Structures are given as structure tokens and as C-alpha cells.
Amino acid sequence: MPLNLLPVLIAGGAYLAFSGGRKKRRRKPSSGQTALPPANGSSRGEVFSGDNPPDLIVVQPGERFSVSFPESGGAGYGWSLSASPVDNSVELISTEVDKVQGDAVGGHSENRVFVLEAKKAGRGSLVFHLQAPWLEGKQPPSETVEIQTRIS
User: Fold this and answer.
1) Does residue 7 sit within a domain?
2) Diameter of the chain by CA atoms?
3) CATH number of the domain that residue 93 is part of
4) In this structure, is residue 13 part of a structural domain?
5) Which sign does the torsion angle of CA 129, 132, 135, 137 carry?
6) Which of 16, 48, 67, 73 could connect to 109 by a Cys-Cys bridge, CB 3.0–4.6 Å?
7) How far apart are CA 68 and CA 79, in angstroms?
């Protein structure tokens, strides 16, 4: 058992142990990237999974795209966009929460969706962090996902 376990959360007889440290989730490159279907009537553009993020998102100025991460609504840990391209080529339009229908898979009860818009040609990266709000600034995020962007 690792010695770097952080506080254990006990709820209803079950327990969750959160380990400290910084992890970077990256998927192995593949020949094609599949986007999730857009929500009904939304203007989210292509929706990419944060669980299996692309290494690079390529869009044209004016196009919208989204990145979706599963979250456990009651655990207190949530995803946030902590950095976007310094050249302002991508702008965060909104952050939305979709409730998962039926049985929650793996304990995830909702999806946090970051809706972004390509503003102008440029290159950069989007950095997302998974962290509890009360731990912000006190310890590194539980997980970090970085996705490169190219707007052309």
C-alpha cells in the first residue's frame, strides 16, 4: 500500500482514498480520433472525451469544440480549465454539467463539458486539472490533462 495516501473519505460505510502527486493522462496516438456526439440542440461542436483525449485538436477560426470529463458529483473533486493558449486563439465559452442517465458507470454521476471556440489562427495547449476546491493551492492536482490546439 502506498504511503502517500491523503485523507480517507468515509461515507455510508464506504471509503475512498485519494493519493497525492501529479499524474498526466495521455492517450496513445491512434490513426483517427472519434468525437462524442454533440448534445441535443447544443452549439458545442465536436465533443472530445477527456478520458481519452486527443493529442491535438485542429479546428478553423469560428468553430466550436468541447472537451468532456466524467465527474462524481458527491466526491467534491472537479475538473477545471487551468490554462489556455497564451496567444488567445481559443476562448472558453461555457462550462456545462450533464447528468448521467441511468446507472452511473464507475461512480461517475455527471460530465463536466468545457465549450471552447477557436478565435484566430494560432497554436497552444489547453490544460485541465482535477482537484478538490479546498485543496487548491495547498497541493498539486490529482490529475492533469494537456491537449495541444492548432487553429488554422
Assistant:
1) no
2) 52
3) 2.60.40.2020
4) no
5) positive
6) 73
7) 9
